[in-house]
Amino acid sequence: MSELLDVSGDFPLLGRTVREGKRLVYLDTGATAQKPTAVLDAERGFNERHNAAVHRGAHQVAEEATEAYESARAALAQFVGADFGEIVWTKNATEALNLVAYAFLNATLGLGGAEANGFRLREGDEIVVTELEHHANLVPWQQLAAKTGAVLRWIPATADGRLDTEQLDVIGEKTRIVAFTHASNVTGAITDVAPIVERAKRNGAMTVLDACQSAAHLPVDFHALGLDFAAFSGHKMLGPTGVGALYGRAALLEQMPPFITGGSMVEIVTMEETTFLPPPQRFEAGTQMVAQTVGLHAALDYLSDIGMERLAAHEDQLTALLLEGIASVPQVRVLGPTDTRDRLAVVAFEVDGVHPHDVGQVLDDQGLAVRVGHHCAQPTHRSFGVHASTRASAGVYTGAADVEAFIAGLHRVIDFFGVGA
Description:
With 421 residues, the chain is of the alpha/beta class.
């Protein structure tokens, strides 16, 4: 077993105290990750030295801003195994997923000309999702189905919170879109992408991957995975909020009609009509989040210096510590796999007889920051027969002492509520 990383000192927020001087133990990385000093410095440095509108001004500062913006795109493309022009900046992963969904809707309405034919849906066409999706990769497809007459179908979850790969025959000859998570933000289960992509390709369907959890914690290569689209967000990758990205296969981006229109994405505008720039600019209307992309670039450099394989090994050990520790606490049930195979350090659980919000409050009183609620995944919780859960999620800065404090806190929950007494 390799030695755990020790980088918490790089993250200023983790040095603070909460609840009358208690050490902050941050176990909510699955919701948003903390930022290292390098990211904070990069964003501030851009605003102090290079802030300007990109792709517009002819002056030096504008040139510097544009270079920083596009350098971040190049770094992100390399990080996820994509080509430079296959990365579209968005505000977050939710916008990225909606971009694809609205491309299908707009094409179905007749926009985009003949080149958008591959995105046109007909009544009876099928969209396949899964029971493990975050709402961001479910609700847009529900809406698309409702607006076009397409049929929404889904791959169910197994009893231990993995995708039921015995049910892939849901993907059939009528399937046009297969949207699925790479790693569940509730169960932590990592999806075996290959059989889903193979089945989709066999039936001529496009694949859309929610990579929000995976891109932040595992080495990913979208080209190697054979994906058509993938969405992810900067704030889960140690970067700023307000920036995310869509990966799209170059040939498909060329065919897609835009989602948001306005300035910066146009070629020729007359009073009667408008033509649009090629991708990725076609999908980047308006003033862009330049400082945030610079901060994300710094986060990617930070992660690359550590190494994603090394990070994954670190978090695999934390997963084992979390699962082993929770197993020692009576009346607690893990919602998801209870072993580390193909699993992230995202552990949702229920305490028998205690509401998740009450669990979270007792933990918070001890300085332990966890997530409570349905985690924007109500169908996933429903598959376990619960409405909500408490979730602990680790990151690069999490250490063994943090897990020990969390397990001690869980025992305190049991004692406080007298569960099982």
